[in-house]
Design brief:
The structure is a homodimer of 419-residue chains.
Chain A lengths: L26 E5 L7 E6 L2 E4 H6 L8 H7 L5 H5 L2 H15 L11 E3 L4 E3 L7 E4 L3 H11 L16 E4 L4 E3 L4 E2 L2 E3 L10 E3 L3 E2 L2 E7 L18 E8 L2 E2 H7 L13 E3 L4 E2 L7 E2 L19 E2 L2 E7 L6 E6 L8 H9 L10 E3 L14 H4 L7 E2 L5 E2 L7 E9 L5 E3 L3 E6 L3
């Protein structure tokens, strides 16, 4: 077993190789059950570092008043709004406090992550969902619009996106209630109505915008690093039968708006700088305002785990956002090229991340070809779409800058029938 | 001139026939320039009744602690969240305080509306835009999809909608910066890029949702009156060239997200109960969850005024939401049939309100047939789409329950070039 370098070592038991070591330090919001409100925390191993309590304990010295106030707030919004210099100074301070170095007095206040209640890590403002994977776009085009070119005419020229429902962005672990709705009728009949028969997942990566911008301001591709605080795993639950009936001409609505799950822990960009890679060459060339300057894709092994009610968890897909055609910077530059203002807590997500090969698709509609090729599970059962009681868990792994494991906060949810 | 009945008379000078008399009493948020934060107010004539100051002055006696706290908050959100009994009790109390009856001691605190700065009347949560006008839908289908049936296959079965950008909902008077973006290329060329050449309006009515609901809850049509606090005029600015290039397959995005203007004053449903009318008969019959129980269209004369830079204001269209195919209750019931949670401050708007006859359309793309039939203005100029310096103002008039004029808060904006 490799020796953990001193710079990467935490004094917190089990943290170094847990995926939540000193090179990671993602932020979340929690309640401790003692009746107070939500508080900001940092995940370290199987613990949450209570930032307000750690400030009070003197474990996080040297921060400004504004930074201390942000660490005493209920979630990430206040810290994000302070901007990148504050993010870096707070991160360095937390790293010192949790590191096994001379300057740590081990006075940081830790709580077992299993003993706190997890809340949304930030207050979602607007939520934009993208369509950045060429493979996913082509797969869905083939299924939804078999008579047309699977790639829409605009797709190679702009990162297609739309607004999702921010009010139903929920934290990992929230139960997902199977939505009801209309689906396509047979000719002349009224539309069938009932619980969706095609409840699906969408494996995505979300980017959290930190700063307010004024109306009329466009974020240039080169400045996106000042605006994006961090990343989260996203599962954008989808009801395919509702979606395919409703979406023309104004786009997805009720087929998506019932729930979008995000991880409890926001990974700062500073923890994953070394995982940034360029996307594939773009042909035809994109317009100037979309021209890449830095790598803004992320090399992460994302795994999709399905656990039937009472059954074993099994891996049904493995995918990676490194090959997305449109990167996070292009998405944000595009979303603001019209002068749309941003707010702290805006999230934009990649859209479904799919590869070319079977079992690299980021949705069941692709994995099963809209149910025509069911997945065979280990216990002999089959799956087209999700059944009540199914749990879906997305995980993502990489190595941190010190070579230790880094695991993004997982996102999971279990399907419940409508009441 | 008709005599104003005693029950309808206000002691505030000029209020009775101003459109903002005792039968109206819409809410807004304002700053007085003295450096404090935004405060909640009620419009009466050319004045704002400062609710916090009026509570302090003893002008609004008999309210509960929660109601008093809501009146001391910066905008409508807190009052809306208290629910309909509180809305009615506060309204009755304000009516007494501003009425010319025995129980008014004229101690309510008034400020001239011209001397305060107006803010958004509520904090927008999510914003849903509809497509409720059959005439508008058919007009746009003919222009955008000339080879297809102008009415999409789903349109008669469900109130089509999508999520707009809540973070760019702005209050009346906010300058509208002409958005830049891509538009459709000629075959093989890169997409043209620049300020939109087709900047348009969309005349809409917005409905403000008052209450949080849990995930999995659907608002029944019959209960919508418990959830909708009030109405506002909306101008959903649109860039038609950007929109027509980007919208397939996920719907409008940058063609809309740069700005949506709403009136400064929210008219409570209680002030316009008598204006509620049934929409047209629906054929084919709608599904049970969409079946109307009460009238939820509103009979209001909406006028669209265009003022070129330095020129005279002129009326370019007159329309009425009373004939919308889908009503406000059906829209809200549909938007939640999948269990999507609501939050205080959610807004859903009708979509563009158009009639059949020329000069009853709610957008320039319809009024000018996408610029092919320009409007001739009084000064001899012509308009296809909006020019820099143009001001657009929407007004809406009716009679209040006492037979006095009632004018919804107007919504206006002036076009500025991008910087």
């Amino acid at each position: 077993m490799a020796v953990v370098s001193a710079a990467a070592r935490s004094w917190v038991r089990g943290a170094d190789r847990s995926g939540f070591g000193l090179g990671h330090l993602p932020y979340g919001s929690f309640l401790d059950g003692a009746g107070g409100g939500a508080r900001l925390g940092v995940r370290i191993g199987e613990f949450v570092c209570d930032l307000a309590a750690s400030v009070d304990a003197g474990a996080l010295g040297g921060l400004s008043d504004a930074e201390n106030a942000a660490l005493r707030s209920p979630n990430l919004n206040a810290l994000m709004a302070l901007g990148r210099p504050a993010w870096r100074s707070v991160r360095a301070c937390v790293k010192r406090a949790l590191g096994d170095g001379e300057r740590s007095d081990r006075s940081a206040v830790l709580l077992a992550v299993d003993e706190v209640k997890i809340a949304l890590p930030f207050t979602p403002a607007d939520y934009i969902d993208g369509y950045a994977s060429r493979e996913h776009t082509e797969h869905l085009g083939q299924l939804f619009r078999p008579d047309e070119d699977p790639l829409p005419a605009n797709w190679l020229h702009l990162p297609v996106g739309y607004h999702g429902r921010a009010g139903t962005v929920v934290v990992s672990g929230t139960e997902i209630i199977r939505p009801r709705g209309q689906s396509s009728p047979d000719n002349g009949d009224p539309p069938p109505f009932g619980p969706t028969a095609k409840l699906d997942i969408e494996v995505e990566l979300g980017f959290i915008n930190a700063l307010d911008t004024p109306l009329g301001f466009s974020v240039p591709v080169r400045a996106v690093g000042e605006h994006i605080f961090g990343i989260v795993l996203v599962n954008d639950w989808s009801a395919r039968d509702i979606q395919s009936w409703e979406y023309r001409p104004l786009g997805p609505f009720l087929g998506k708006s019932f729930a979008t799950s995000i991880a409890a822990w926001v990974t700062p960009i500073d923890a994953v700088e070394h995982l940034r890679v360029h996307g594939p060459k773009q042909d035809p060339p994109v317009l100037d305002y979309l021209t890449r300057t830095e790598p803004w894709n992320f090399d992460l092994q994302i795994q999709v785990w399905l656990t039937p009610s009472g059954g074993q968890s099994e891996l049904i897909s493995t995918t990676n956002p490194k090959n997305l055609y449109w990167d996070a910077a292009q998405q944000l530059a595009h979303a603001t090229i019209n002068g749309a203002a941003l707010r702290t807590g805006d999230m934009h997500a990649t859209g479904t991340i799919s590869g070319t090969a079977h079992r690299t698709e980021g949705s069941l509609i692709e994995l099963t070809r809209d149910g025509q090729q069911p997945l065979s599970l280990n216990d002999g059962a089959q799956r087209t779409y999700l059944q009540d009681g199914d749990n879906v868990r997305l995980t993502a792994t990489a190595l941190d800058a010190h070579g230790q494991p880094l695991t993004l906060g997982p996102v999971e949810g279990t399907i419940k029938p409508p009441s």
